[in-house]
Amino acid sequence: MAKVFTITEGLENLGALKSGGQGSVYKARRTGEIITAIKILPTPIASETDEDKNFISFQNEVQKLKKVNESPNPNVVSIVASGITTSGNLPYIEMEYIEGPDLGELLTPPYDTIFTIKEVIKVADHLSNALAHCHRADIKHGDIKSNNVKFNQRTGNYILLDFGLSIMSDEQRRTSIRHAGAIEFMAPEQNMGVMYFETDVYSLGIILFELLAGTVPFPLNGKGEMGRNLVMLAHMETAPPDLLALRKEAMPSGWDFDKKEREMQVPSWLIQMVYRCLDKEPSKRFLNGMELQTFIYSGIIAEEHKTVNRSTEQLTIARTQGLQLKKEIEILESRATEKDSLIENLQTQVELKDKAIEQYQYADNYNLLKPKKTGISKGLFFMVLFIALGAGGITAYDSFIRPHKNNNKDSTMQIQGSINPPDSLATPDDKPLKKAKTKFKKNIALPIKSTGREQPGQSYENGKQAAENNPVPEKEYRVIHTAYLHVSPAAYTRSTTYIIPGDETVTAIKEKNNFIYVTFINTEGKTTKGWLLKKNLRLVNQY
């Protein structure tokens, strides 16, 4: 851990951020509320004069850094100031403080172990822009690694930090790299203390490889000198491993199958660029940040064209499918219209059937009560006529020719037989006995012509005798359907007299053949008797 000490007047030391071979970084605050980051180099300045080579080298590099800040870049940390610490005479650089995680932190939990293709391209774009900006100012960074690239949470940009090695002398740089440098990110030529623009390109290639594969090409196992030497040798002699194979192994478990499939489709230009950056020979790499940036821009544009082409192709397919669907919809709508018309026709037919059924239900009782027509042959007709004429002749003979006898008893009987009893069913003009209010929506009184048969009152004795043969306990019934009176318990004896539904009741006397012999007293106090169909009646207590 770096020591906490006074930096210089006007700078408040807020504590160490990190320490490395190229020095320590402290969080500081200028007088007021401005937070900055201070990079303190490990080599002290003996004298701030031209006699001290370290001081001269430091001053030269600081002048270069000032050129970087002449035109601000969104991907390069701003240099605020530089100087010598009050205690220790150590050179320092004051930079803006970036709030956010670095790339090393973004590759560890809770983040995913690898970056998406889209985010890798974004990092490549931002860092190539940073390198191009520095290389134009003749500044070689020399220490590009995951920990020196931060994600600015405020702007969403990736920022290149820590220009510590850039302001060191060659001798200081060799010593720093040999003992404390991030050996996993160093180009082969850096082992000899040499640094080119292509050196920064190599280190950027290592970063992109790590983001895609989840690991650097040559990881350091342990912190001993042997481990560092093995990594250094691998950078010089060993070809980088298969990037896609490592990426497949590092796929996060939280990604679904479709996302894993998509994220394995790394653009060929991006893989080609990474391997070119990692070439052992500096001359075979991209010459500087400007050339690398141009290549990345070309790759991004090509990728956008592919996306546009895919979108256009998908749009064409979608339009074709849309037209097909539109035609299918029109066909379905036409069929639906036909079906709607068919349904309307069926509904009309159903309504007509319902009305017919309703009419049949009302007329059913009357159809059952219609007397059956009985035919008579001509021969039988003439025979009956002959007998009637003979009977007439005999009657005439008895009345006019044969001497009259005093048959008082017979006359009395004839007179009695010709007089209707008080409870006769006959009513004048075939009128209904009682026109009572009906409880039904419709009362259809179908007119039935008189059959010329005897009225119930005229065959009263026969009906009464038949009723006495089948006595039943007297019960009160109410007429629920128009009920025609019958002379006897047989359908063909129906008269033209009928009782319509109402509140009045009839009293049952006898029952036979689904007929009930009843008595009925109308509002005028007249009593009528006759046979009614049982189906047209209902017990009062069941009404």
Characterise the protein shown here.
Helix 3 packs antiparallel against helix 5 (197-213), helix 3 runs antiparallel to helix 10 and helix 5 (197-213) crosses helix 9. It is rod-shaped and about 185 Å long. The chain folds into two domains: 11-287, Transferase(Phosphotransferase), domain 1 (Orthogonal Bundle); 423-542, no CATH class. It is built from 13 helices and 14 strands. It is α+β, with helices and mostly antiparallel strands. Strands 1-2-3-5-4 form a five-stranded antiparallel sheet, covered by helices on one side. A five-stranded antiparallel sheet has the order 13-12-11-8-14. The chain starts with 10 loop residues before the first strand and ends with a strand.
| Count of folded domains | 2
CA-atom Rg in angstroms: 61 Å
CATH class of the largest domain, anyone? Answer: Mainly Alpha
Succession of helices and strands: EEEHEEHHEEHHHHHHHHHHEEEEEEE
* CATH-assigned fold name of the largest domain: Transferase(Phosphotransferase), domain 1
Strand order of the largest sheet: 1-2-3-5-4
CATH architecture of the largest domain: Orthogonal Bundle
Distance between the termini: 107 Å
Number of helices: 13
Structural class comes to: alpha+beta
What shape does the CA trace take?
rod-shaped
The CATH homologous superfamily of the largest domain is termed Transferase(Phosphotransferase) domain 1
Q: Helical residue percent?
A: 40-55%
Low-confidence stretches: 404-464
Strand runs, count: 14
Q: Give the biggest sheet.
A: 5 strands, antiparallel
On the 0 to 100 scale, the average pLDDT is: 78
Question: How much of the residues is beta strand, in percent?
Answer: 15-25%
